[in-house]
Structure formats: structure tokens, C-alpha cells
Design goal:
By secondary structure, this protein is α/β, with parallel strands linked by helices. The mean pLDDT is 97. It has 14 helices and eight strands. The longest helix has 23 residues. The protein has two domains: 174 residues, 3-Layer(aba) Sandwich (Rossmann fold), CATH 3.40.50.1970; 202 residues, Dehydroquinate synthase-like - alpha domain (Dehydroquinate synthase-like, alpha domain, Up-down Bundle). Helix 6 runs antiparallel to helix 7, helix 6 runs parallel beside helix 10 and helix 7 runs antiparallel to helix 8. Strands 1-8-5-4-2-3 form a six-stranded parallel sheet, with helices on both faces. It starts with 9 loop residues before the first strand and ends with a helix. Bound molecules: fe (ii) ion (FE2). The site of fe (ii) ion (FE2) has 6 residues, from helix 6 and helix 10.
Length: 391
């Protein structure tokens, strides 16, 4: 057994947990930079209550920035430049994964004023971050990326065609307040796409070649919750309170497991597709979820039939409710393959072909992709079929 566990935020998880925001902020200072979504913050029923409880706690809102859509390096640099001379004790981020990712980058850059391009993996100038970041309190309002529990901020530049991370342990938020009730106003299409992102992150990290008993235990508890909550949350359009908690838990845990066990084929493709095309990350992951796992299962059965990953797939089938305990491995694997594909259809995740991706663009995507810690090395034909079957 050989594993490391990255630093975690202090986690406050419960319906209504947002009520601790004021006191949590005061533990780190009084002068905050508040980063929120634009339209998404306006949709949030609790927005006036949140601003009110910050004011009642004596918090000084010295600056506010809005992030709409998936953030670019330019957006992050603009916020840092605008706030560089401001006296800020901590950053508070309230929003979806895009907002939290942008806020992590801003918190990590404000002490130096550096451009994020100094640090961006693969495309940046390779500078080593000195570990100085402003404290960050993350409040997710969607359930998908688990960004509140991980150490990277993902940024996209569609002109350059990249989607890359600024990654450093100091970017892990000090505190994450996960209040499932904040999901109540999430549009149904976002519940579906973000939920598939979280589910895929859990499956990929559970099946990863770098998984450990530590991450397996966490991932399985969360896969079981996603099995109970994802479809009911979508069907109830966010109304089902128990389902909100299940999916918020699944998302938060997926951030922990991906940070400690890595990811597989779906996310190996999602980065390049999201860099080349303006398609939301959750939609990319959701649309690939069924086919990627079907192809993985087929490849494992034909080339590595004694793989532990196949046994893990049987357990996934039980946790997601596709298989009964004790049914034969072959039948169970068939059910998992079909079950995930059926969920993608049921949740109405669009095909890539309706979003601008064509067979002609496939080689460009594949050139920039890698399989990360997928449980089996897929052939080029298998890897490419994950995308082409969803065009
Ligand atoms: Fe993801």
C-alpha cells in the first residue's frame, strides 16, 4: 500500500450549512473579495440572505468580481490586476465549478500579482509557485466538479485551444461549505451534466491505476449516493431534498478522490474537447460517460479478463442499482455497460455532433488527449470510438 493524501479543506456539509459562512469568514479576517457567478448568483434564492449574514457578521465586502462561463487566463489576470492594491484578508467564492476554479487561481496569484500564465500546466512558463495564497472559503452552488475539495483551477482559452490547470496544494480552500439546499435552483440541464461529471470523476478515480484503499472507500460511498440521488434529483428538477444531499456529497467526494487517485479516459478527452470547442465540461463528460465505460469493459474482458477493474465494475453496478448482489460477473458487466448508456440518454445529455464536433475534428482531439490513469490502455481505435460514437 502506498499513497499520499492531499490537504483537505475543513468541510461543513449539511442542508442549511450556509448559515456558518459569517463566522467562518471571521476566523480568517474581515475584508473579503467576493467572487460569484453572474447570472447564476442572481438565480440563487439565498443570495440576499448570504449578503445579509456576511454584513451581520461584520464582514467588509471590499471588492466583488463576477465570473460568467468557464474562466480564461485573461479573466483571472484581470481580477488580480484590479484587486492587487486592495487590502484583502481572504477570498470567498460562491458559485459553480467555474467560479470556484477562478477564485482558487485569484487567491493563489494575489500575493505576487503574477499572471496565471506563469504557472499553467503544459502551456505556461513553468514558474514554481511559492505557496503563498490568500485563504479561500468555497461555497459550491452546483454539484459536479468537486472543485471545493481539490487543489487545481481549470482555465480555458478557446483561441489557443487549451484547457489547463493551475495546480498547487496551497490552492486547496481552507474551508468548504457544502449546502445541498443551494442546488434547489439549479436548472435541470445543469443537474444532469454536472451530475454526470461528478459520477464520472468517481468512477474514473475508483477504477484508476493509482487508486488506494483510502480513495476506494470514499469513492464507493459516493457512487452509492449518486446511485440513489442523481436520477431523482434530475426528475424532481432539484426539489428532492434527499437527492440534493446525495448528489452534493457525490460531487464533493469526487473532488477528493480525483485529487488523490487521478482520472481516466473521459477526463483525458474532456480537457482537449473543452479547449477546442465551447462546450460545458459537464456536458462533455456526461456525453462520453456511457461509451467510455462500455469500451473499457469490453477491452478489459477481451485483453485482461482477470483484471481487478472488472470486479470493481461489478461493485459499481451494485452501488448504482444496475445489478443485484450475487449475479454472475458476465451478466453484471452487461448491465453496467447498458445502465450507464441508458442514464446518459435518460438525462438527455446532448451528442457532441449537435455542439460543433465532427468526425473531421477527431484527430485534432486525439492528438491532444491522453488516457491518464485508465484501468486498461485502450487502442487508438477504442479511444477514438469513445468520441466518434457520441458525434
Ligand atoms: Fe470533471
Amino acid at each position: 500500500m502506498n499513497f499520499q493524501v492531499a490537504r483537505l479543506p475543513a468541510l461543513h456539509f449539511s442542508p442549511g450549512a450556509i448559515s456558518v459562512l459569517g463566522e467562518q469568514v471571521c476566523e480568517w479576517g474581515q475584508r473579503i473579495l467576493l467572487i460569484t457567478g453572474a447570472a447564476s448568483f442572481e438565480l440563487l434564492d439565498q443570495r440576499f440572505g448570504i449578503l445579509d449574514l456576511l454584513q451581520r457578521a461584520g464582514v467588509v465586502l471590499v471588492a466583488r468580481a463576477e465570473v460568467s462561463g468557464e474562466p480564461s487566463p485573461t479573466v483571472v489576470d484581470q481580477i488580480v490586476t484590479a484587486q492587487r492594491g486592495t487590502e484583502i484578508d481572504l477570498v470567498v467564492a460562491i458559485g459553480g465549478g467555474s467560479v470556484l476554479d477562478a477564485a482558487k487561481c485569484v487567491a493563489g496569484l494575489l500575493p505576487t500579482g503574477d499572471s496565471v500564465m506563469e504557472y499553467l500546466e503544459g502551456v505556461g512558463r513553468g514558474k514554481v509557485h511559492d505557496g503563498r495564497s490568500l485563504p479561500l472559503i468555497a461555497v459550491p452552488t452546483t454539484a459536479g466538479t468537486g472543485s471545493e475539495a481539490s487543489m487545481n483551477g481549470v482555465l480555458v482559452d478557446h483561441q489557443q485551444g487549451f484547457k489547463k490547470s493551475f495546480r498547487h496544494p496551497s490552492l486547496v480552500p481552507q474551508v468548504a461549505i457544502v449546502d445541498p439546499d443551494l442546488l434547489a435552483t439549479s436548472p435541470q440541464s445543469l443537474i444532469a451534466a454536472n451530475g454526470c461529471d461528478a459520477l464520472s470523476q468517481l468512477l474514473e478515480s475508483y477504477l484508476s491505476t493509482k487508486a488506494s484503499p483510502f480513495t476506494d472507500g470514499l469513492a464507493l460511498s459516493a457512487i452509492e449516493q449518486m446511485g440513489q440521488g442523481l436520477i431523482p434529483l434530475w426528475e424532481s428538477a432539484g426539489e428532492d431534498a434527499a437527492a440534493r444531499s446525495a448528489v452534493a456529497y457525490g460531487s464533493m467526494v469526487s473532488g477528493i478522490t480525483l485529487a488523490n487517485a487521478g482520472l481516466g479516459a473521459v477526463h483525458g478527452l474532456a480537457g482537449p474537447i473543452g479547449g477546442l470547442f465551447p462546450i460545458a465540461h459537464g456536458v462533455v463528460c456526461g456525453t462520453l460517460l456511457g461509451e467510455a465505460n462500455r469500451i473499457n469493459i469490453d477491452a478489459l474482458r477481451s485483453r485482461d479478463p482477470s483484471s481487478g477493474a472488472l470486479k470493481k465494475y461489478v461493485i459499481i453496478g451494485e452501488k448504482l442499482g444496475f445489478c443485484e448482489a450475487g449475479m454472475g460477473e458476465d451478466a453484471a458487466l452487461d448491465r453496467v455497460s447498458a445502465g450507464l448508456i441508458e442514464w446518459v440518454e435518460r438525462l438527455q445529455i446532448p451528442r457532441l455532433g449537435t455542439l460543433g464536433v465532427s468526425q473531421a475534428g477527431l484527430s485534432d482531439i486525439l492528438q491532444r488527449s491522453d488516457q491518464k490513469a485508465n484501468p486498461i490502455t485502450l487502442t487508438e481505435a477504442e479511444f477514438s470510438a469513445i468520441v466518434s460514437r457520441r458525434i
